[in-house]
Amino acid sequence: MPSRKSSPARPDNPLLSVRGPIAELLLNAPVRKNALPLAAWQALPGELEIVRQDPSVRVCVLRGAGGESFCAGADISEFEAIRSTPAAAKHYDDINVAAFKALKSLPVPVFAAIEGPCLGGGLGLALACDLRIAAGSASFAIPAARLGLAYPPEALGDLLEAVSPSEAKKLLFTAQKLSSSEALRIGLINEVVEDTELDSRIEALCALVCDNAPLSLKAAKRAINLLAAPARAENLATLLEDARTCIDSADYREGCRAFLEKRAARFKGT
Question: Cys bridge to 265: 41, 186, 205, 258, which one at CB 3.0-4.6 A?
Fold first, then answer.
């Protein structure tokens, strides 16, 4: 089958290509370490719909453009303009969560090929994938506490499928970066390879998957996803109210301002 590519309305929108049975979604904002603006988050489910509707696709790979970064999360420079109120933040988070769900619900296996920073919402995208293969130079963090916001509860559910509650708390409480070896130790990723071997390892995994029965893979993915999170939605309303409290705080405004001004934030708990 010939390669097909999407035609994004913006140059930094995700870019999908299909080569035979392998689809690749490229997070395409390399000048910002692939930190995605809101428009790119909005575009991502539509790009993946092409994969969902194409029965010839057996596997999908998610990676960052430029060869130096997977995804540094959301573009924080937009936050003061479009994420400054609880209602606006809820709208923004809903768009992020829709992107995570679009990846997680694809009927085919999805592999994250991770190099460089994989932070915040970028880690959320990686956790929505079925397997995470990282280069040795990759790094991982959830810096929500340094911005004064709450990480989307739906994304935390994906985190808890990968690591223990204790390790999840450590990631969120400290906001510290993990090396690829540390991420492997706690189960955040599946494999670490040399930087120069990432592409060949992803190709080898894709080849293994493409040799297997598509209906078996689809059934396995759906069963594991359903069984891994049977009660995730029970307390969602309470968690969303906690997130609203964070967005409505002075600390959130201070955290965003401090990030943009490249200084330490002065949080007061209000």
Answer: 258
Whether the Cβ atoms of residue 74 and residue 96 lie closer than 8 Å to each other: yes
CB 60 within 8 A of CB 109: yes
3-state helix, strand, coil in the chain (%, to 5): 50, 15, 35
- This prediction's pTM: 0.87
DSSP conformational letter for 108: S
Contact 158, 122 (CB under 8 A): no
CA 83 – CA 80 distance, rounded (Å) = 6
**Helix, strand, or coil (residue 182):** helix
Closest to 118 (Cα-Cα) out of 57, 194, 171, 53: 171
Adjacent-strand bridge partners of 118? 71, 140
Q: Other C-beta atoms within 10 Å of 59: how many?
A: 25
Q: How much of the chain exceeds pLDDT 70, in percent?
A: 93
Classify residue 178 by burial, with Cβ atoms within 10 Å: 0-12, 13-18, 19+.
buried
Query: Which amino acid does the sequence have at 80?
Result: E
The predicted-structure confidence for 200-253, as pLDDT tens digits, reads as follows: 999 999 999 999 999 999 999 988 888 876 556 666 667 677 777 877 788 777
Question: What's the chain's Rg over C-alpha atoms?
Answer: 18
Name the residue with tokens 């969303």.
240
In the numeric block, the tokens 């995208």 are attached to 125
Rounded CA-CA distance 195/199 in Å is 9
Strands (DSSP E) found in 184-256: 191-193
Residue 147: how many other CB atoms lie within 10 Å: 25
Question: What's at 82, amino acid-wise?
Answer: I
